[in-house]
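Q: I'm building a small set of examples for a reading group on sequence design. Run inverse folding on the following structure and report the sequence directly after it, with nothing in between.
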């Protein structure tokens, strides 16, 4: 049986595309360019902070302690961590008594998920997608980078605010109070924006 070249071409192209994309996927890891964010807090201090957050949430009654849910959430989370680019990091996954659809990650690999998100999900992969997002905040050190950036940017922003306040006061008149308030609010807004740049 002879196969016509026109019929063979689509199959050959599909095979070549699959082989190429599989090889590219294996080499698609981003290079580690390093970060000084780890100097903000040591890993031990990060773990202490995360444990304090969890203890406070537990003390306030926000933690949903259910062995079956805890085991399931830990299993899904650990499968994601093992596939991440930093599988050696320790993670703690926990469920919160909150019907809102939300999750968060904090220092030390502590990841909280609201029960409302699990209730709203139709499939496990939807929950896994949110957990993967939170795991990436930890592996990419977003909280630490945000803290480092806030430390670095706060002095120049404060000096700029002070300069704007002095300039507004020098201008005098009825609008100097409004200009002073605008300078303060603008500086505070910029500081807040710098802090949330890594949150979503």
């Amino acid at each position: 049986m002879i196969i016509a070249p026109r019929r063979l071409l689509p199959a050959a192209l599909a095979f070549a595309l699959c082989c190429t994309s599989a090889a590219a996927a294996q080499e698609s890891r981003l290079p580690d360019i390093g970060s000084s964010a780890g100097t903000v807090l040591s890993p031990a201090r990060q773990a202490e902070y995360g444990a304090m957050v969890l203890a406070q949430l537990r003390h306030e009654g926000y933690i949903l302690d259910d062995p079956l849910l805890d085991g399931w959430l830990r299993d899904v989370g650990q499968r994601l961590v093992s596939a991440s680019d930093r599988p050696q990091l320790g993670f703690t996954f926990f469920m919160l008594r909150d019907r809102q659809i939300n999750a968060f990650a904090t220092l030390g690999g502590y990841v909280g998920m609201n029960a409302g998100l699990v209730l709203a999900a139709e499939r496990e992969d939807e929950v896994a997608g949110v957990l993967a997002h939170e795991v990436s905040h930890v592996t990419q050190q977003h909280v630490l980078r945000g803290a480092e950036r806030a430390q670095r940017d706060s002095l120049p922003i404060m000096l700029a605010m002070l300069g704007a306040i002095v300039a507004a006061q020098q201008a005098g008149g009825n609008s100097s109070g409004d200009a002073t308030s605008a300078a303060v609010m603008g500086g505070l807004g910029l500081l807040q924006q710098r802090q949330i740049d890594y949150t979503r």
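The two ends are 58 Å apart (CA to CA).
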